[in-house]
Amino acid sequence: MTVPEPVVVAARRMADRALSWLHANRALGALPPGTTMEIADPNSVYKPLGETALAASLILRDAVAGPGQLAAAQSLMEFTWQQFRQGDMLYERQLRHTLMIDPLETYAPFARCGYRHPHLDRLLTHHARLRSVHGIEHMPNRRLAVANAARICGFNRGDDWATLTRSTWLGASPEPWAIDWITAYSMTHTVFHLTDWGGFPQGLPAELTSYVRTWLPVWIDIWREVEQWDLVAELLIVGACLDNPYCEPADWETIAALQHEDGLLPRDSDPVDDDPEQRFKDHQHTVVVTAVAGTVALARAAGEP
Predict the structure, then answer these.
(1) For 242, which of 67, 200, 210, 305 is 20 to 30 Å away at the CA?
(2) Is the Cα dihedral 78, 80, 85, 88 positive or negative?
(3) Residue 29 to residues 81, 218, 275: CA-CA distances in angstroms?
(4) What whole-number distance in Å separates Cα of residue 184 and Cα of residue 239?
(5) What's the N-to-C CA distance of the chain in angstroms?
(6) Are 48 and 284 in contact (CB under 8 A)?
(7) Other Cβ atoms within 10 Å of 151 Cβ, number
(8) What DSSP state is assigned to residue 100?
């Protein structure tokens, strides 16, 4: 099944506007002056910076954007790399906290684009051999996140992908109606990490691909009805990551119609705050997801025979 032309049009508009918003507002996502690797609240700025780098890295990887957008994505990579002190912050954080996984996950988008930190590379290569690191008790989809980050960076951890997949909610081919909000997010990330954000669609086993393709339209309808636009956009990414993409024009056009002219996409049906800093805090993640969704769909469309 090809990606329909209306989806290509919507995906292009969504991705371009989202990237423009992220680039124009990048200073709002800067780390506070004096931030060290001992971050009191990683979810406040540190994690969103990594998500911005992820979106930019996928835009550069898939190279389906125009020259101006590719330049903006490269600028975002430079900005976020500088924020992490050219990788020094990630290295210091990993050196101090052996069992933390966020330095590796944050590093992966940079490594994808050729940004390397030799000391961090050596440290993570060492960590890949530690039993304690492999024994960390994480949510199953988080284990996949670490495995994919290591794969991107080129660290051989010997991960058993089949076992990791079976341990997830999705890997059990569960009753599709027994899904809630947080489980849906876990399901989306299982797909993202197995397929490396659509770059390796065959990474999702055939039986799970069939299962997701059957029930994805229902899940999208559920969260469209309750206007959880962040989750709907993540589900659009899932559809684009499948070996045989599921991209329903009506779903994409719904999200495209919600996007503001400047590129912001509301996370839900709540009013959007007028304060620029609050707008960024509330909706940055959804804009990142929108940029990724559009980029992956365009890449899948471009790669079709």
Answers:
(1) 67
(2) negative
(3) 13, 35, 14
(4) 13
(5) 11
(6) yes
(7) 18
(8) -
**For residues 267-299, b (16+ Cβ closer than 10 Å) or e, as one string?**
beeeeeeeeeeebbbbbbbbbbbbbbbbbbbbb
Tell me which residue has tokens 């371009």: 16
Q: Give which of 234, 236, 240, 212 is closest to 62, Cα–Cα.
A: 240
Q: Are 139 and 186 in contact (CB under 8 A)?
A: yes
- Tell me the two tokens of residue 188: 């989306």
pLDDT digits (tens, 9 = 90+) for 129-175: 999 988 889 999 999 999 999 999 999 888 999 999 999 999 999 99
What token pair was written down for 148? Answer: 């994919």
Residue 56 structure tokens: 């930019």
CB 254 within 8 A of CB 274: no
For the whole model, what pTM was predicted?
0.96
Residue ranges in the chain modelled with pLDDT below 50: 305
**Containing H/E element for 66?**
none
User: What is the spatial distance between Cα 87 and Cα 94, in angstroms, rounded to a whole number?
Assistant: 11
